[in-house]
Specification:
Elements: H1 5-8, H2 21-32, E1 39-43, H3 50-62, H4 76-82, E2 89-93, H5 100-110, E3 120-125, H6 132-143, E4 149-155, H7 163-166, E5 170-173, H8 179-193, H9 199-209, H10 213-227, H11 233-240, H12 245-256, H13 260-273, H14 277-297, H15 311-318, H16 323-334, H17 337-342, H18 346-359, H19 366-375, H20 378-407, H21 414-422, H22 424-437, H23 440-456
Parallel strand pairs: 1-4, 1-5, 2-3, 3-4
Length: 457
């Protein structure tokens, strides 16, 4: 019977559990100094070694010839735990055993001393799936476990565990495994399995695994079955559905060089290949992010996801573009998320997005224009022109007043003329007020009211 690679190459010692040195060192030291906490929580994404670490810990606790906290994997206790044949080793799935009845069985079992092992170890996988009543039933046992019993709870969703439980346990967080670490492990597996695979294919598998070693081994299994011998890069890309970085590089170069014909050709190629435009768009945003990382801090496999084989081309590309331009590319591109999802023709929207990016270099930033205006005095000229405009506008308003009086054929007697002279200042103040506010209609109404007041006098 065939055994999956994830099971065949499952870590059996702390030293073989990669990517979690901070956890492993703490557990080994606690074992050597006899300071191991009785209730532990292992959290992290799927496939990073939580359950494997719990099993190794169970073997180390009960190993007959343990050295520096490492199990020997040769004694009867280690073998029985590895084969899941030990009565004192309990491993359950919290998702399918999440009721209060299952927890009661565990509570009854841990009351008694182990039958053959020094310690009984209870491992609850996906512990966040337990019901509220199950948590309540487990609380007292977790708080005061029997001296011969250890609890290890593994979860992919730590925040769903009640705080009353968390406060009574030691928490260890398992990190994502870096792509370069996964690539090295897959190389070793390929040699042992007699498979020929390129560095680029291993990189694609590690990138698709997204930090999960188990997922990487699963994909490796699928690739080996599909290829039957030598593994071709194109077949790996076909299985994973990944997009070649060459497409992104060529598109960015076309945008920088304003080669809009090439943009149309590339989008048409994607259409002919039947590629999902939404997926392509999301991967393009990720690529822009990786370019910004390299532009800011240089190459680092642990931060960006660029294929190392493309570093030379990426360096040449980044010489042609500034950090500000990359930010503008990203800001413009992210606005098309909703548009692409709602559009019946996302390919057309994608074409116009890249065309818009190609025109960004023709635009001038406002930060670049303002210093030039201040240096050549254009700003003062604008203010002076505005002042001249206001003076001319005031003169036009005075003419409008005179014409309005003539138009209405008002005849003023000597008393009205004197009153007019007395009200001159008030009238001009009103004119200036509306001149500043540029409200001609309101000014005319005010003028009419002044004339009516004069005639009443």
């Amino acid at each position: 019977m065939y055994i999956a690679l994830a099971r065949k190459y499952r870590p059996q010692t702390f030293s073989s559990l990669v990517g979690q040195s901070h956890v492993m060192q703490t557990l080994k030291n606690a074992l050597k100094e006899n300071r191991l906490y009785q209730t532990l929580i292992f959290s992290g994404i799927k496939g990073v070694g939580k359950t494997s670490a719990a099993r190794i810990l169970a073997k180390s606790l009960n190993c007959e010839s343990s050295v520096d906290g490492e199990p020997c994997n040769k004694c009867d206790n280690c073998k029985s735990i590895a084969s899941d044949a030990a009565a004192d080793y309990i491993e359950i799935d919290g998702a399918s055993n999440n009721g209060i009845d299952e927890v009661r069985k565990i509570r009854e079992a841990v009351k008694y001393r182990p039958m053959s092992f020094p310690y009984r170890v209870v491992i609850i996988d996906e512990v966040h799936m337990l019901s509220i009543s199950a948590w309540n039933a487990l609380l007292k046992t977790i708080e005061e476990p029997p001296e011969h019993t250890y609890f290890v709870m593994a979860t992919t969703d730590f925040h769903k565990i009640p705080s009353t439980i968390v406060s009574r346990c030691q928490h260890f967080e398992f990190k994502r495994i870096y792509p370069d670490v996964i690539v090295d492990l897959l190389k070793d597996i390929a040699v042992k399995e007699g498979v020929e695979i390129s560095e680029y294919s291993l990189y694609l598998i590690a990138k698709a695994a997204d930090g999960s070693l188990r997922d990487a081994q699963k994909i490796m299994d699928q690739v080996i079955s599909f290829s039957s011998g030598k593994i071709d890069d194109s077949r790996v890309s076909e299985i994973l559905g990944v997009i070649d970085e060459e497409l992104f590089i060529n598109l960015i170069v076309s945008v920088i060089n304003k080669n809009r014909a090439k943009i149309f050709e590339t989008i048409e190629y994607l259409s002919q290949k039947g590629l999902d435009f939404i997926f392509f768009y999301q991967e393009f945003l990720r690529f822009l992010r990786d370019l910004m990382v390299i532009k800011c801090i240089g190459h680092s496999n642990n931060i960006h996801g660029i294929n190392p084989e493309n570093f030379a081309r990426i360096d040449d590309l980044l010489k042609l573009v500034k950090e500000e331009s990359l930010l503008r590319y990203f800001n413009v591109s992210k606005e098309y998320d909703y548009i692409l999802r709602m559009s019946e023709n996302p390919g057309i929207m994608l074409e116009f997005m890249f065309l818009k990016l190609s025109y960004l270099s023709d635009l001038t930033l406002i930060e670049e224009i303002l210093p030039k205006l201040q240096n050549n005095g254009s700003v003062n000229e604008v203010k002076k022109s505005k002042s001249n405009f206001n003076e001319a506008e005031t003169k036009d308003i005075k003419v409008l007043k005179r014409d309005n009086i003539k138009k209405n054929n008002y005849v003023l007697n000597d008393k009205e003329k004197e009153s007019t002279i007395d009200d001159k200042d008030d009238t001009l103040s009103s004119i200036e007020k509306y001149s500043k506010e540029e409200d001609i209609k309101g000014m005319m109404e005010d003028l009419n009211q002044v004339i009516v007041d004069i005639r009443k006098k």
